[in-house]
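User:
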Amino acid sequence: MTKSKQVYLTSGSPGSPLSGETDSGSPAPPHGRERQRILDLFAVLDWMMRLPDSLEQKPWQDIAVIEGESKMRYVTSVERLAFQRGIELGIQQGEQIREQRGAQKGEARIIQRQLTKRFGPLDAETLTRLQTSPCEQLESWAENLLDAATLDEVFKDN
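Assistant: Predicted structure:
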């Protein structure tokens, strides 16, 4: 009975970069070689699709004609994937910013209510200061509010 080996890429001879094995002959872990496997695959596909020099530019000329007729440029699958990834990252960053702004507005609103209850109506400058300050500053003022006798003591620098 022979011992079976797990091989992640099957082309090439044992020990070659495309064999999926390390120099010792053991299977390479898939997570560590994923990027290199993709690059190797692109290299193989490029080699397999290599055209004679006389025809090398023909597909690109055809694409240019199609783009000109449809007023749209050709988007490769790699570009589409990169575009999709960019959209996903943008959405994720937008959600983080929205959460931060929501937290800041909530903290500012609570401190505003506490200050109004303790010191009376707040002037426009104080309201603007609360609405435009970062959460860290608002937290500092919230702590100062516990011991402050005046509104100025709340906003003192620590």
